[in-house]
Amino acid sequence: MADDLFKALADPTRRTILDVLTERSGQTLFEICSRLSAKRQPGISRQAVSQHLAVLENAGLVETRREGRYKFHDLDTAPLRQIAERWPAPDTSGPEESTP
Amino acid sequence: MKIHLTSVFVNDQAKALAFYTEILGFVKKHDVPLGGEDRWLTVVSPDAPGGTELLLEPAGHPAVKPYRDALVQDGIPLAQFTVDDVKAEYERLSGLGVRFTQEPLEAGPVTTAVFDDTCGNLIQIATQPQ
Q1: Is residue A92 part of a domain?
Q2: Range of A58's domain?
Q3: What CATH number is associated with residue A41?
Q4: Helix or strand holding residue B58 (H, E)
Q5: Which of A 3-32 lie inside 8 A of B, CB atoms?
Q6: What is the pLDDT at residue A47?
Q7: Where would I find the HTH arsR-type domain in this sequence (chain A) (predicted)?
Q8: Which residues of B touch A29 (CB under 8 A)?
Q9: Size of the A and B interface in Cβ pairs below 8 Å
Q10: Which residue of B101, B105, B107 is in closest CB contact with A70?
Q11: DSSP A30-76
Q12: What is the ipTM of this complex?
């Protein structure tokens, strides 16, 4: 799972697709492609977006659901927690002891 | 050359005529029996009765269903109509029970939305930049 996650995040187009999915949950492939072109993400075909979505789904970052004849994509950022748990960030919220 | 007529396949012409006139607001232009139950059935915009006609074409050919099902699954519209205000039209049609697969989306100067025409197709509405 972790390897799939890092592989999915390694591609800039897939990171942009994740950005697009934060804008509204439950998007069709067509809407995702429309938003990508609005972001001037040039020259990416619907088929390519579809393949990127499959990689993201495989990594657990995107979930698809069918409603009748439609298929919608939702973002799930839960797998990203594995990264923070593996390499926890230092807590910077409290007062720093490093003041001279 | 100019576009005089374009078409969408519809599952049921009578139901399609009702949706395209009573819900969307088009008006019937031609209704000619073609033998059997099929009709040459076109609608036009009330704003342009002499303008482009939309043919509501029977969807009986076996290639139509898999073609449209695949497009609908991915949310791809088969036709685009222009409206003055996509958001207002979205509110009006939603109130009439029309199902949208894409809520109004601003993409630069253009705003679009996509709805199900209940006859087997997704339709995009758009406001064009002035």
Answers
A1: no
A2: 1-86
A3: 1.10.10.10
A4: strand B53-58
A5: 24, 27-31
A6: 95
A7: 1-95
A8: 74-76
A9: 49
A10: B101
A11: HHHHHHHHHTT-TT--HHHHHHHHHHHHHTTSEEEEEETTEEEEEE-
A12: 0.90
**Residue at A34 is within a domain:** yes
Could you say which of B69, B73, B108 has the minimum Cβ distance to residue A38?
B108
Q: Total structural domains in chain A?
A: 1
Distance from CA of B107 to the nearest CA of A (A): 5
Sign of CA pseudo-dihedral B87, B93, B96, B101: negative
CATH for B5-127 is 3.10.180.10
Report pTM. Answer: 0.90
pLDDT score at A41: 66
- Asked whether the beta carbons of B101 and B115 are under 8 A apart, the reply is yes
Instruction: Choose the mutation target among B73, B86, B106 for the interface with A, i.e. most A CBs under 10 Å.
Output: B73
pLDDT at A42 over 70: no
